[in-house]
Write a structure and sequence with these properties.
This protein has helices at residues 24-33, 65-70, 83-87, 112-118, 145-152, 190-193, 246-250, 293-296; strands at residues 52-57, 97-102, 108-111, 122-129, 134-144, 160-165, 185-189, 199-204, 207-208, 218-220, 233-239, 274-277, 284-285. By secondary structure, it is α+β, with helices and mostly antiparallel strands. The strands form 2 sheets. Strands 1, 4, 5, 8, 9, 10, 12 and 13 form an 8-stranded mixed sheet that branches. The protein is globular.
């Protein structure tokens, strides 16, 4: 059910449209983080992770860790890029349970710490492309979503995977605004969810993931626009029909279900042909599927990617 018809509301409109053009907001966000530790976090928020190397990496300069932790969209904490760094520090991420249910033989509840011990934590260096036309290179730490889904054994009826994030307005002040019908929802087709690139991230730069980046666990699908990556996940469900997703519910004309990075399909309000890499001044060309075409394009063979955007 749509929360309301809002044809003029876009993800770019609920943030400052100028944020990805300059450095002022990054400097504000960095100041909000403080100067403790690699990610600017205190010991209560950050802890080192034991990680293993992964072949999944891009040979590009990593984005400054304080930019990653201080410049992001997490509307549960507000609509400005620096709001998550300011307001997410009080989010309690322990205890934390992730439910995996739906069309599977073995639905389960997983304690986050047990889950992190169950699967090897890999370092994966991925490009991150926002629909707002800015980008980063992020060294995520996590494990393949496929590894978790195999544990619960999807049935033959499962065709899609839906993702649900935490609802707690007392901890997440942005949820007091109803422009999104909370909880934040996202979804993937089952083959997309099972793809080796699809990651459940629990860390960044070898430390536990900062609250403002989606602690304690978030989705990363690097060939899609960043809003597809639900943060602070509490539930993953295997379903037989395409699930509703938050931005598609707000404005389906501008935010399709698939949201693959496609330089040839502009957002109705701006071009997607180029992007602004955080930390750089010049714009660069946007790569189809964010550069992951050789790995993922076959999943969309025969599909009209202008229609299924």
């Amino acid at each position: 059910m749509l929360i309301r018809q809002t044809p003029d509301l876009t993800e770019n409109d609920v943030t400052d449209k100028g944020l990805y053009y300059g450095r002022r907001t990054f400097m504000t966000a960095a100041a909000a983080l403080g100067s403790t530790g690699l990610l600017g976090l205190d010991a209560a928020q950050a802890a080192p992770l034991a990680t293993v190397k992964s072949p999944y990496k891009v040979d590009e300069e990593l984005t400054d860790p304080k930019a990653i932790a201080g410049y992001n969209n997490f509307y549960e904490f507000g609509t400005d890029k620096s709001d998550p760094a300011r307001y997410a520090r009080s989010l309690k991420t322990r205890p934390w349970t992730l439910v995996v249910d739906g069309l599977c033989a073995k639905p389960q509840r997983f304690d986050i710490d047990a889950l992190m011990k169950r699967f090897p934590i890999e370092e994966r260096i991925y490009r991150h492309r926002c629909v707002e036309a800015w980008s980063m290179v992020v060294p995520w730490n996590g494990f393949p979503l496929a590894s978790l889904l195999k544990v619960v054994e999807p049935t033959s009826a499962a065709k899609f995977v839906s993702f649900t994030t935490l609802v707690d307005p007392a901890q997440m002040p942005g949820q007091k605004d109803d422009f999104i019908k909370w909880p934040y929802r996202e979804g993937l087709r089952l083959d997309e969810a099972m793809h080796p690139l699809t990651l459940l991230a629990v860390g960044i730069y070898g430390e536990t993931i900062p609250n403002q980046n989606g602690a304690p666990i978030r989705l990363v699908a690097p060939w899609k626009y960043g809003f597809k990556g639900g943060k602070s996940l509490v539930k993953i469900s295997l379903v037989d029909k395409q699930p509703q997703t938050s931005w598609n519910m707000i404005n389906g004309r501008e935010y399709g279900f698939y949201s693959n990075v496609n330089p040839e399909v502009d957002h109705p309000r701006w071009s997607q042909a180029t992007e602004r890499r955080i930390g750089e001044f010049a714009r660069r060309k946007t790569l189809p599927f964010n550069g992951y075409g050789p790995q993922v394009a076959s999943m969309y063979s025969g599909m009209d990617l202008r229609k299924f955007y």
